[in-house]
Amino acid sequence: MPTHYIVDLTVDPLPSDTQFDDYSCFNMETPQIYFTLSYQLCHETTLHATDIILDSSTCEPTFADPFFLDIDLSMNHQAMYSFLSPRFARLGICPPDSPYCKYFVLGVIHEVDTMIPRKFKNRNAVFAFNINILTRCVRSYGEEEAMDLVMRQSRLEYESRDCGMVPTAPKSRRLKCVKLGGHDDPPDADAGDGRQRKRRRVGKKEICTVCLEELEDFAAGMPCGHLFHGICINKWLENSHYCPVCRYEMPTDH
Prior knowledge:
Elements: E1 3-13, E2 32-47, E3 53-58, E4 62-70, H1 77-90, H2 99-115, E5 126-141, H3 143-160, E6 176-179, E7 201-202, E8 205-206, E9 218-221, E10 227-228, H4 230-237
Parallel strand pairs: 2-5
Antiparallel strand pairs: 1-5, 2-3, 2-4, 6-9, 7-8, 9-10
Helix pairs in contact: 1-2
């Protein structure tokens, strides 16, 4: 399940009727630039080696406090760095000492330089821009993992409509601790009908089908033989009495 990040920076002029804040920093004797800064985080789930997006969600933009800057300083890397780096950090975009911070500052300088005229007839001119940074967190799944994801989302949607939302009995949530790679794995015969249950894997590694992250040294084993992170399956069983993979039914108090 490879995960990679794509970061896009855009600088767009603000509408001419923009209401400016923080006039205390505004020097009417020289042209000024008025900046706002917004940040968006987008999570995408894609099918590996295709352009198919299985799931996507984007949070609303978060805005940093706006500020004015003398136009002469807008082309100064150190000045822009001093103004922008703490705002990047405040939004959780990147720490001030990160190479991404310098990359963003250089990008802002370049974009602003292309949009401001070289000569000013009005010394009281104000040029207003919004700096927007979009970070896309893209997780790519193979066909089998993608099918697992779709099935899990379908089950969650089904149970979210109060269909079968019966918690597992507390005493039945105490699952066996399994050491991976050893001889403590729950036998497949526990499934009842003797059929081999195929565990979901990434390569040769076990994954938890609740969070879709890799299982490490130990896991919690359901009676049906499927393995999960202990925390993941415990939270699941607090709301459902079915195995997330095969719908094996656990005891309830109802």
